[in-house]
């Protein structure tokens, strides 16, 4: 029996369940499998959506909030992951607290954090009482999307922490000792030893967080801007309120294309940092 025949059951399920759904969405964007009208192959729906300024505003809004939310989660996860490598009192309790957002559904988290970032929420009331600001700041449902960014950072920080903490913990101690013996400061040790060795974990967490943020609906529906829709909200409104399922299929494909393109860009941008310091790491070990 050929070994590759053993892959047939798994690949068959993937092709049947995922491939068929993808095929239907692609075909629907070109006028096939219509739910509400006649079925005919056409480029009309693509032409309509690609010339719609609302779509491009949604692309800009979703890409901005997804990028900044991912960047914020990764940048915040690195120092916390390094801090967790130390011996801390009640470390298990700290780790459990940091991972708590993973067990909160996105819609519930949106309503919970709205009390924090609302116009008269905890942050604004605290800043007012301290005299730092004269009037409350608009953080919820703002035009730029800061409320979405804060929610994405809070929700995705635990996931980034799991990957980065495990990656940092797997670094051999002799490499870290070698960098210290050679006179490297903590910052240089991080830049030339820890960061390059954790690039794969950072890439994986960045790609998965970004894709999840790009297709997020729950945060945008509660705390999102009232002047711009996220791509997920635009797709939902187009399909369920206007019954334009073909146009919604076009938006779905655009989301998938943006996710795939962004994954490639993240990989291409971060990969050089993992390779340019490789000779130095080898010299440090020797």
From TrEMBL:
Stored Pfam families: BPD_transp_1
BP term (GO), one: transmembrane transport
Keywords, comma-separated and alphabetical: Cell membrane, Membrane, Transmembrane, Transmembrane helix, Transport
Chain ranges passing through the membrane: 6-26, 65-84, 104-123, 144-173, 193-215, 249-270
Compartments reported by the entry: Cell membrane
Membrane protein topology class: Multi-pass membrane protein
InterPro entries recorded: MetI-like, MetI-like_sf
Residues in ABC transmembrane type-1 domain copies: 59-266
GO cellular component: plasma membrane
Family: Belongs to the binding-protein-dependent transport system permease family. CysTW subfamily.
Protein name: Putative ABC transporter, permease subunit
Organism for this UniProt entry: Photobacterium profundum 3TCK
């Amino acid at each position: 029996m050929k070994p590759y025949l053993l892959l047939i059951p798994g690949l068959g399920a993937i092709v049947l369940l995922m491939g068929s759904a993808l095929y239907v969405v692609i075909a629907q964007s070109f006028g096939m499998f219509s739910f509400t009208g006649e079925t005919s192959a056409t480029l009309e729906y693509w032409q309509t959506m690609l010339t719609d300024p609302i779509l491009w505003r949604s692309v800009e809004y979703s890409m901005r909030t997804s990028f900044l939310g991912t960047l914020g989660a990764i940048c915040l996860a690195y120092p916390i992951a390094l801090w967790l490598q130390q011996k801390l009192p009640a470390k298990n309790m700290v780790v459990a607290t940091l991972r708590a957002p993973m067990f909160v559904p996105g819609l519930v988290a949106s309503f919970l954090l709205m009390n924090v970032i609302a116009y008269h929420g905890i942050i604004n009331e605290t800043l007012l009482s301290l005299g730092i600001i004269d009037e409350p700041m608009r953080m919820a449902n703002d035009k730029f999307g800061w409320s979405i960014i804060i929610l994405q950072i809070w929700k995705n920080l635990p996931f980034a922490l799991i990957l980065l903490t495990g990656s940092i913990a797997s670094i051999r101690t002799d490499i870290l000792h070698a960098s210290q013996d050679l006179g490297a400061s903590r910052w240089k040790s991080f830049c030339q030893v820890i960061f390059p060795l954790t690039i794969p974990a950072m890439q994986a967490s960045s790609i998965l967080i970004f894709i999840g943020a790009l297709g997020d609906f729950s945060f945008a529906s509660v705390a999102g801007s009232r002047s711009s829709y996220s791509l997920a909200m635009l797709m939902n409104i187009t399909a369920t309120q206007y019954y334009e399922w073909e146009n919604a299929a076009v938006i779905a494909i655009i989301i998938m294309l943006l996710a795939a393109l962004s994954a490639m860009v993240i990989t291409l941008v971060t990969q050089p940092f993992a390779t340019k310091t490789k000779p130095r790491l080898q010299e440090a070990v020797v």
